[in-house]
Amino acid sequence: MNILSNKILNFEQTSFAERNIISIHGMPFYKSSGQNSCYSDTWFPFLGVLQEDVNIFLSKGWFIKPQESNLPKDVKDKMDELFPSYGAYRAGQELRQRFSNIPCLLLSSYLGGGLWESNEGKQFRRFLSEKYPDFYEKMPKISLLPIKKYCRNEEEVNQWLCEKAGISNYNDLKNYMPMELGDIKFQVARQSNAARRREKALGTVVLQRQQELARSLEKTLLTRYAKRNTKQAEMVAIRTEIAIYFVSNIAQQFLAYLNTKNALVELINQFTPKIAQQFGVGIKPSMLGAFENMNLPTQRAFLTKFALQRGLSLSCVPSHEPAKMCC
Questions:
Q1: Which domain of life is it from (predicted)?
Q2: Does one domain contain both 53 and 117?
């Protein structure tokens, strides 16, 4: 499938923190407020939204920007000429980093608005049109559909972006950033395949995924917990509509561990599918080891707190085995 064709491409929009957001075949763009970029209404690429504080500079809610610029020298020189600074030391260099590379720069110019409506932006667009004529001549029209969904928090933004890209972890959005113009075609084909997968998931693929998960859980239990109590190892009671969201290898190991404890199974079964998806996507290798080292009351408290933070109140579940103190 070729993006450079005579057709209209329709893209859905969402909004978070007063910024409109779109996904162009898996690659996120947001419309800048201008607070930091100084060019409001300009579409910039980004890689998701931070869901927790990293340091004093990168806090929860931060739109994750590309970390480097791969623009050709003549394009950089033209930007230095037209945008030497816009209110801050070396701000022109920061603008190059915000666009990151030629595909993202050209897509932003094609979307228009903001910087591209200024006199300097119009001059820059003419320069790009002369340098990359095929892109502008063959690029189809883009139509941004009215916003139907407003994201309430960072998790909802990343979940929306993952759904558009057909992935489960927003950290993988970096793989959808096109590095060369030829990559844009690949983005379209990959998005089309993802859309077809989502359609099939409404039918027989759901059953197939459940069967695969059951086989995987059985294999994990046999290899990782073979020496544990037989009755515990056979205790696979987590609801299927919850278990299907534990997709990654480490998430399935975590699920297998939960299945060995009745009290934890009863807690996780109270999760809604949406909360289960958020939990399954966020499981990291270090989390499994830390969780296994907790005693049962602490494990139950951890799961309960996760659900409470997302607005779900869990019923208190009595322990079915004695608590073990952490070493």
A1: Bacteria
A2: yes
Tokens of 252: 């399935």
Is the whole-model pTM more than 0.70?
Answer: no
Which whole-number Å values give the CA distances from 260 to 109, 191, 254, 256, 296, in the listed order?
55, 38, 10, 7, 12
Kindly give the confidence (pLDDT) of every residue in the chain, 327 residues in length, as a single tens digit, with 9 standing for 90 and above. Answer: 344 445 667 888 999 988 999 998 889 999 998 887 778 899 999 999 999 988 877 889 999 998 888 899 999 989 988 887 654 444 456 788 899 999 999 999 999 999 999 999 999 999 999 999 988 888 888 888 888 889 999 999 999 999 988 888 998 998 888 887 776 654 444 445 555 555 555 445 555 655 666 566 556 555 554 444 444 444 447 888 888 888 888 888 888 888 888 888 888 888 888 888 888 888 888 888 888 888 988 998 888 888 888 777 665 544 444 333 332
Q: Closest Cα partner for 107 from 14, 23, 1?
A: 23
- Domains contained in the chain, number: 2
Task: Kindly state the greatest CA–CA separation across the chain.
Answer: 74
Kindly state the tokens that stand for 13: 């929009």
